């Protein structure tokens, strides 16, 4: 009874239009906790790694599908590149509502679906982009999403991903398990990051050839990273929200402890892979 009351007490009080507004803060997925504080770039290698990745995936005049656009920071970059079409697919209906107006000027859409089963036609996309979403799928789920990207891409089309990595490649299984377990507890998401070699092998076994890869530190909560990604005003807003929302602050501190403890073993990795003919 008491725990139910507490749960009620820590639920976000006003519907802020963000996903999981109806969920108690204690049970909210980590990325939506950060979004509630004002964070907009929700991927491990930051916007710098996104930009490096997109530089290897030409978007101008291309039909682009984005898996899991979240709050749309990459959507904005994709739109600036001048694609001929944009389709976003996110399993959260609120994300679809946020992204829709951003892509309307080119007749783009965003709808709610599992990226593993989009219902999009075979072989029509030039580029599929997906960030910080494969990490949170099971091994089977990862394969299903990658297979779906392959199905909707034209032969020779590009799949660009940006995910959480484990390093080094020969990290003992016991440590991999400890990282995954502690991450899952802190971010309330079954996060299963992979080593560089494992990501690469996964893409290759699902019919892709890796044509580029890049790495950046996993600095989601780092001050310098946040200044780069969110700007000075954004960081000030996040700090103000941290000071005034103890429930959200508690979640962030728990996440920070895990990121600090396992920081040497985590990074942000990105790959651009070409769909084999
Ligand atoms: C950590 S956020 C990343 C958002 C954005 N890509 C970014 O990097 O800032 C994860 C996003 O993945 C979406 N997502 C997770 N699993 C998904 C799935 N199977 N199909 C579609 N979207 C999914 C969530 O709804 C959320 O928007």
From TrEMBL:
Record-given protein name: Methyltransferase
Its transmembrane ranges are none
Answer whether the UniProt record assigns the keyword Methyltransferase to this protein: yes
Q: Name one Pfam family in it.
A: Methyltransf_25
Q: What is the lineage of its organism?
A: Bacteria, Bacillati, Actinomycetota, Actinomycetes, Bifidobacteriales
Residue ranges of every copy of the Methyltransferase domain listed in the record = 64-157
SUPFAM superfamilies (UniProt xref): S-adenosyl-L-methionine-dependent methyltransferases
Q: Which UniProt keywords apply?
A: Methyltransferase, Transferase
Note the CDD domains from the entry: AdoMet_MTases
Family matches, as InterPro entries: Methyltransf_25, SAM-dependent_MTases_sf
Q: Which GO terms describe its biological process?
A: methylation
> For this protein, what is any one GO molecular function term?
methyltransferase activity
Q: Which domain of life is it from?
A: Bacteria
Q: Does the keyword Methyltransferase apply?
A: yes
């Amino acid at each position: 009874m008491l725990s139910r009351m507490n749960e009620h007490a820590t639920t976000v009080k006003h519907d802020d239009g963000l996903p999981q507004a109806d969920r108690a803060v204690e049970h909210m997925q980590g990325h939506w906790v950060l979004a509630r504080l004002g964070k907009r770039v929700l991927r491990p290698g930051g916007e710098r790694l996104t930009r490096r990745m997109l530089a290897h995936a030409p978007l101008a005049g291309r039909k682009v599908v984005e898996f899991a656009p979240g709050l749309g920071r990459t959507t904005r970059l994709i739109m600036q590149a001048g694609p001929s079409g944009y389709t976003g697919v996110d399993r959260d209906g609120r994300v679809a509502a946020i992204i829709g107006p951003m892509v309307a000027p080119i007749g783009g859409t965003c709808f709610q679906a599992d990226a593993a089963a989009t219902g999009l036609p075979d072989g029509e996309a030039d580029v599929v982009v997906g960030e910080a979403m494969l990490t949170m799928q099971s091994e089977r789920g990862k394969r299903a999403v990658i297979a779906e990207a392959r199905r909707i891409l034209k032969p020779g089309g590009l799949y660009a991903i940006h995910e959480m990595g484990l390093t080094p490649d020969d990290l003992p299984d016991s440590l991999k398990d400890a990282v995954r377990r502690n991450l899952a507890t802190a971010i309330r998401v079954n996060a299963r990051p992979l080593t560089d070699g494992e990501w690469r092998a996964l893409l290759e076994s699902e019919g892709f050839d890796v044509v580029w890869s890049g790495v950046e530190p996993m600095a989601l909560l780092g001050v310098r990273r946040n200044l780069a990604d969110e700007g000075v005003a954004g960081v000030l807003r996040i700090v103000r929200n941290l000071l005034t929302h103890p429930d959200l602050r508690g979640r962030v501190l728990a996440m920070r402890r895990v990121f600090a403890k396992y920081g040497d073993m985590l990074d942000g990795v990105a790959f651009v892979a070409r769909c084999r003919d």
